[in-house]
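Field guide to reading this record: the first block holds the primary sequence, the second block holds the structure written as discrete tokens, and the final block holds curator observations. Each block starts with its own label. This record concerns Putative alpha-macroglobulin, catalogued under organism Rhipicephalus microplus.

BLOCK 1 — SEQUENCE
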Amino acid sequence: MAMVLATVCAIYVILCSHLVLAEENCFVVAPNVFRVGTSETFAVIVDGGPKTVTVTLHTSRSSPTSFFHWSSTVSTGSPQIADIIVRQTDVTNLQHERNRFMLKVKCGSLWTKSTPILMSPASGEHFFLQTEKPIYRPGESVNLRFLAVDGRLKPSKSIFRLEVRNPQNLIVERTEFQPQRDLLLTHTYQLPERTLLGEWSLLMKHGYNVWLTLLLFEITVN
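BLOCK 2 — STRUCTURE
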């Protein structure tokens, strides 16, 4: 009973902001915007007995090949929820949020329908970064703590890059992270004894070629 209730609640949340493909005896709910590298959820409900439902993603309506494929036998009264992840390698020419792709659904031998969806380079992940203080002196250690979570607030599965840049905007360190299981990550950057004074920045690359300035800190001799 608890599992059924959780499934119904999840489907209700999906329905609030997602598109629907519905026809005789099949009901599919999926995002109307997909974010590259982000796990998106879709739900499948059937009526009138078990049916094999297939969900695919295509670069265009006329494209015979798909870059995502899911197929399962769904029973009446037992809706299924699954995830779609669009990789950067699937959409190499993505430039802006008005890129249209095709979502195709096949409901057994009853019907096949397709609908356009938007593909967005915006990341669905969230990053929270903290240093122990805003001002440092040359030679000190900058200790960082940060969280990297997906849209469900679970540890991110994506690889992201953290850059340390000096006041001249030159990269002095680049580090890659892949959170996977741990919510809280730590990193230490050791400032040289002789270094540029002024405002330094931490930048993170995530999602589809998106840079985000996360934090600024200052180096002073006072």
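BLOCK 3 — OBSERVATIONS
The longest strand covers residues 111-120.
The domain at 126-219 is CATH 2.60.40.1930 (Immunoglobulin-like).
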